[in-house]
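Supplementary Methods, section 5.1.

A reviewer requested that the exact input to the structure prediction be made available. We therefore reproduce it here, unchanged from the version used in the analyses.
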Amino acid sequence: MAAPEDVTESKLLLAEYDRIKEEQKARIGFRDNLLYFTLAASTAVLAITVQNRRAQLLLAVPVICLVLGWTYVVNDEKISAIGRYIREQLGPRLAELSGARGAVFGWEIYHREDTSRTTRKRLQTAVDHFTYLALPMTCLIAFWSSRAVDPLLLIVSIVQTLALGMLGWQFLHYAER
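The structure derived from this sequence is encoded token-by-token as follows.
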């Protein structure tokens, strides 16, 4: 067990930094893999739908995109929250304790000042919207255009459309500028 004089506020804050950066790194990997998994799962459903000629199966794509899209949004928000916490809370506390003149954890600020950041963020939002909204909406339109529409499935598809609209709003709401 460490002696009380070995446990300082600075050491605790640095340990916290290490842990939350590990969490951020894990969340980034998970979030990025969600995009690939969504595309793979949707492609598999589309292949099965075409193979079996059952338009009802198209309703699985919005479910996939809603569940994985929401998980993507939640992870993306936590990744951003970790960065904000480091910039706004942890860094300033450590700077104060250490007497540092400049920003502590400068990368957390520096990488956000890139002149291409806004363009990249907009393009990523477009990719997210294509994957999690345009793809399932295309499937819904294909379903509505088929002969497989019955009243219950029509209601399901309308609920899915509303849920996709809410997901789209969440992507825009949490998109960091």
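DSSP finds five helices and no strands in the chain. These observations are discussed further in the main text.
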